[in-house]
Design brief:
By secondary structure, the chain is α/β, with parallel strands linked by helices. The chain contains 22 helices and 30 strands. Strands 3-4-6-9-10-13-14-15 form an 8-stranded parallel barrel, surrounded by 6 helices. α15 packs parallel to α17 and α15 runs parallel beside α22. The longest helix has 20 residues. The chain is globular and about 75 Å long. The chain starts with 10 loop residues before the first strand and ends with a helix. The relative contact order is 0.09. It binds flavin mononucleotide and iron/sulfur cluster. The site of iron/sulfur cluster (SF4) has 14 residues, from α11. Flavin mononucleotide binds next to β9, α11 and α13.
């Protein structure tokens, strides 16, 4: 018994009983999902089994392709209708999920439309972020063919043992979504025009599936209740000037879908054009979706599942108790922690490893780089069989130097492998720079991650020595078999005249009282931009200056698209001034002198100049300590400032290799 009992209570979708309120919502996992013949890999099956074991009542894996007639290719992998091996492996997946009392639905896509080049849509529209390319218009016959393919897919899914199917998707601006919106759908046949015509595909799909699979076989719809777009590739932050789907229309659609025979709605918001609503980063508050889902729930009798930053179990519990939603959809939170439901239901919420909304290991790898999906804070996610924890190699003693996130992960992984671990940290607390990273009001999940690590280390019996910067003799005394150096970074201080008059990014975060009302932030990377957002939220007049031609662009491909898109729109909305292609040349008592792109200089008056010019690794100990003659490696920021993903993945790899 815990205060979250309501989240552990069963409910029904059609005649199918789901044992609790938690659902893994669909995520296409990429590369490691399939074997050579196009069936689900052992890795993927194991991944979902772990989530079923971790307590999820319903599992809906990422969308699968059904169309083998119209689209020239599928960005989602093999086709279930034509691939017998897919069907065999799907049966294995279903059995392994059922073994733990969970239900599993198959998400079937009708197509991706203009979200990807070459794929046809309802009308000719510019391809997402590729306006010079146009997605061709489907013929009426092609639409009918696609509907027939999805219905055939549902029959196959039922034969494979799935408990139901979900239509992909009137969300994220995929084909079915484009069909539903007048902005994208300008057809004059029976699939265009009135709302009922635009929903005709959705209607024919559910009717066809029920006819072939029986009325008892549940069919759901993934539905974006509001799209938050004001043009192609352009989001509306506060929902004004909506050209896509308003909430009122989303609610109207919910009612129509129920009347057509849909058995549940799996609701969210946004499209590719407004990715910070579709795949919301940390700047979008937890539970922002609930009031919208509640409007749909008010209008229908079928169950409503809500997804998109639904990780706050208190908000979720309250929403289920109030009858605002029936189920809690967790995508990225299920990547970060497979046991999330069991921990909530048992009231052990402090044990949950939080998703930090960074989009680095999941969204970016899936949509931007095409790498297999995983998770910044859970390096094993969806790679459990490929790079799971190795058994320890005897009774080794491991010393970790540096108690930032990399050091804590290295200590945790070493201890999990059965090694005796000592963690040295020179300051009086653990966390390193994630203390500052978690200080902004919109980044509390990072503070939670820090707390999670500290509790894990305590539970695992790691010996922590604070305020201790070890010398080589300390390491000798510990009789260490291996040393991991996670000594982190210090702020960079390039030779700019007067830079000592500026305060560092760390000081700005740790001592906000030192910041005056006119703030000038030098460096438009992630750190500088987040300080700017925090300061403007506190009513300050903020200017960001960046030497490159864009903000949040440094460091590989820069920030993931939804994160950057949201910062840019927040800056526009909150009137943060951004000067790109502009270099700081001097800091004076009056402010900052900058050199503009045309070579001219200007003094910009400010009360406080914040230097967010990046970080440099602390001096290298590896060479100095080489005489120890034991395996030693440097990880995380000590090898060059990077992201939390880099720090944690480096640390996991290093500690898993000892
Ligand atoms: C890597 C990735 C792949 C996704 N693939 C799908 C998909 O195949 N079908 C779908 O309906 N939604 C997909 N989504 C959207 C998620 O289901 C979910 O709506 C989104 O992650 C926001 O919810 P969350 O905050 O719980 O993660 C995907 C999201 C991510 C991050
Ligand atoms: S990579 Fe980041 S956003 Fe994605 S699941 Fe992991 S913590 Fe969450």
């Amino acid at each position: 018994m815990s205060k979250y009992d309501v989240l552990g209570s069963p409910y029904k979708i059609g005649n199918v009983e789901i044992k609790n309120r938690f659902a893994v919502i669909p995520m296409t996992m990429g590369g490691l999902s399939y074997d050579e013949e196009g069936g689900f890999s052992d890795n993927l099956i194991n991944y979902f089994e772990l989530r079923a074991k971790g307590g999820f009542g319903l599992i809906i894996p990422g969308a699968v392709t059904t169309d083998y007639h119209v689209d020239p290719f599928s960005a989602l992998g093999p086709n279930l209708n034509t691939n017998k091996h897919w069907q065999e492996r799907a049966r294995v997946l279903v059995d392994r999920v059922h073994k733990h009392g969970a239900k599993i639905f198959c998400q079937l896509t009708m197509g991706l439309g203009r979200n990807y080049p070459q794929l046809p849509g309802p009308s000719e529209n510019p391809v997402w972020r590729n306006p010079d390319l146009k997605s061709p218009e489907l013929t009426t016959e092609q639409i009918r063919q696609k509907i027939a393919d999805v219905i055939e897919g549902a029959v196959v899914a039922k034969e494979c043992g799935y408990d139901g199917v979900e239509m992909h998707a009137m969300h994220w601006g995929y084909l079915l979504d484009q069909m539903g919106m007048a902005f994208f759908n300008r057809r004059t046949d029976e699939y265009g025009g009135s709302l009922e015509n635009r929903l005709r595909c959705a209607k024919e799909l559910v009717e066809g599936i029920h006819e072939k699979c029986g009325r008892d076989f549940p069919v759901g719809m993934r539905l974006g209740l509001k799209t938050y777009i004001k043009d192609y590739d352009k989001a509306t932050l506060n929902g004004d000037e909506e050209v896509g789907r308003t909430l009122e229309e989303g609610v109207e659609i919910s009612k129509l879908l129920e009347s057509y025979g849909y058995d549940y709605l799996n609701v969210d918001t946004g499209t590719y054009d407004s990715f910070y609503y579709a795949c919301p980063p940390m700047y979008n508050p937890q539970g922002f979706m609930i009031p919208l889902a509640a409007k749909a729930k008010e209008a229908v009798k079928i169950p409503v599942l809500a997804g998109g930053r639904m990780q706050d179990y208190d908000l979720a519990k309250e929403a289920v108790e109030k009858g605002e939603i029936d189920g809690v959809g967790l995508g990225r939170a299920s990547l970060a922690d497979p046991d999330y439901p069991n921990k909530v239901i048992a009231g052990e919420t402090e044990k949950i490893r939080p998703c930090i909304g960074c989009n680095m290991g999941c969204f970016r790898r899936c949509v931007e780089t095409g790498e297999p999906v995983s998770c910044a804070v859970n390096p094993q996610a969806c790679r459990e069989l490929v790079m799971g924890l190795k058994p320890g190699d005897g009774d080794k003693k491991v010393v970790v130097v540096g108690g930032g996130v990399a050091g804590m992960e290295a200590a945790r992984t070493s201890a999990l492998r059965g090694y005796k671990v000592t963690l040295f940290e020179k300051s009086d607390h653990l966390g390193g720079h994630i203390v500052e990273a978690g200080a902004h009001s919109f980044k509390t999940e990072i503070a939670k991650l820090n707390a999670w690590y500290q509790r894990e280390l305590k539970d695992l019996g790691v010996k922590i020595e604070l305020e201790h910067e070890p010398c080589i003799n300390c390491i000798k005394k510990k009789e260490a078999d291996a040393v991991i150096l996670a000594t982190g970074t210090d702020p960079s201080a390039p030779p700019i005249p007067g830079l000592d008059k500026a305060i560092t990014s760390l000081d700005a975060i740790n001592h906000p009282d030192r910041i005056g009302s006119r703030v000038f932030i030098v460096g438009g990377g992630l750190v500088g931009c987040e300080i700017a957002l925090d300061e403007v939220n506190h009513g300050k007049d903020v200017t960001v200056v960046e030497a490159l031609d864009d903000i949040m662009a440094a460091g590989g491909a820069g920030a993931p698209y939804p994160n950057r898109q949201m910062i840019v729109d927040l800056f526009e909305d909150k009137k943060v001034k951004v000067l790109t292609c502009t270099k700081l040349t001097e800091v004076t008592d009056e402010g900052a002198v900058v050199e503009k792109q045309d070579g001219t200089a200007e003094l910009l008056k400010a009360d406080t100049v914040v230097s967010a010019l990046g970080f440099k690794p602390t001096p290298n100990l590896k060479d100095e300590w080489a005489e120890l003659g034991i395996p030693m490696c440097e990880i995380g920021d000590a090898t060059g400032a990077g992201t939390i993903l880099k720090a944690i993945w480096d640390a996991y790899d290093a500690a898993n290799s000892i």
